[in-house]
Design the sequence.
């Protein structure tokens, strides 16, 4: 029986990126729908679960994407609530690449550092990728500083992570200048820059002036980069005594996670893949 991946995208035009990955992952047929919201998705879900017998539902799966992560989360939750009994298919959520990017970044860090107990700082921690990076680091028992433009937003992000990881060591900090970002990053063993495109945290030469940093990851591929000393293509490149990864350096693992995750959706009808599940997949792929 042919496999069918149903792409539910919250944007008007479904992501070409996600469509290409779906085809490369081996989906026989791809049904792409744009303009999806929690209020209009149930009918599409019912169409997916009522057209094949229960033993064949593993050949159908749903992928939730789009650029708006909060709306993607609402759609993801509504999709699952539309299932009942054996009438369900596997589903994955990766709006704006938030889950695959974060899981690949932390799995990459795990290649070089034992994460339990390390000091880590996440720049741009209130964004969807940064928040997930912070959550995964907290899950690994790292001591995590979450940085945002305002302390209120950083504190709110800490609370979101703490709800998932009650015993986590989390510190909210506000910063808005390269000097303040540098002061926060000094003596931190791990730095992950996860700001929005166009936000620069550390200028050229900034990395060499930091003490105690062992690994730095910049997840922004759009100039100006978040950490100017790291190029997008850097992969385990040592600079000023710091192991550096750019967005493309992490991107190879991200793409493997994305493709293998889509492939795994068709192994049974009960897969629910979000941040935690994709992290376990990233760890297995990275061999760490």
Sequence:
């Amino acid at each position: 029986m042919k496999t069918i991946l149903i792409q539910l995208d919250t944007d008007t035009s479904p992501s070409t990126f996600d469509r290409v990955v779906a085809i490369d992952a081996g989906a026989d047929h791809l049904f792409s729908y744009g303009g999806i919201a929690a209020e209009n998705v149930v009918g599409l879900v019912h169409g997916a679960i009522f057209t094949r017998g229960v033993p064949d539902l593993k050949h159908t799966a749903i992928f939730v994407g789009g650029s708006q992560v909060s709306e993607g989360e609402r759609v993801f939750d509504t999709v699952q609530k539309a299932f009942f009994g054996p009438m369900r298919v596997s589903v994955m959520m990766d709006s704006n690449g938030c889950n695959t990017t974060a899981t690949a970044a932390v799995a990459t860090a795990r290649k070089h550092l034992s994460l339990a107990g390390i000091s880590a700082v996440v720049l741009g921690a209130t964004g969807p990728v940064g928040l997930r990076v912070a959550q995964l680091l907290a899950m690994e028992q790292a001591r995590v500083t979450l940085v945002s433009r305002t302390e209120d937003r950083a504190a709110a992000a800490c609370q979101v992570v703490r709800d998932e990881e009650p015993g986590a060591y989390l510190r909210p900090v506000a910063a808005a200048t390269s000097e303040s970002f540098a002061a926060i990053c000094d003596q931190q063993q791990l730095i992950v820059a996860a700001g929005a495109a166009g936000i620069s945290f550390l200028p050229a030469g900034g990395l060499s002036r930091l003490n105690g940093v062992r690994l730095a990851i910049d997840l922004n591929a759009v100039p100006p980069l978040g950490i100017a000393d790291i190029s997008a293509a850097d992969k385990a490149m040592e600079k000023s005594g710091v192991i550096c990864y750019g967005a493309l350096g992490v991107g190879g693992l991200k793409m493997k996670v994305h493709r293998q995750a889509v492939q795994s959706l068709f192994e049974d009808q009960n897969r629910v893949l979000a941040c935690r599940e994709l992290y376990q997949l990233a760890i297995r792929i990275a061999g760490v």
Remarks:
- The chain has two domains: 4-97+253-286, 101-250.
- The mean pLDDT is 97.
- The radius of gyration is 19 Å.
- Residues 271 and 277 are 9 Å apart (CA to CA).
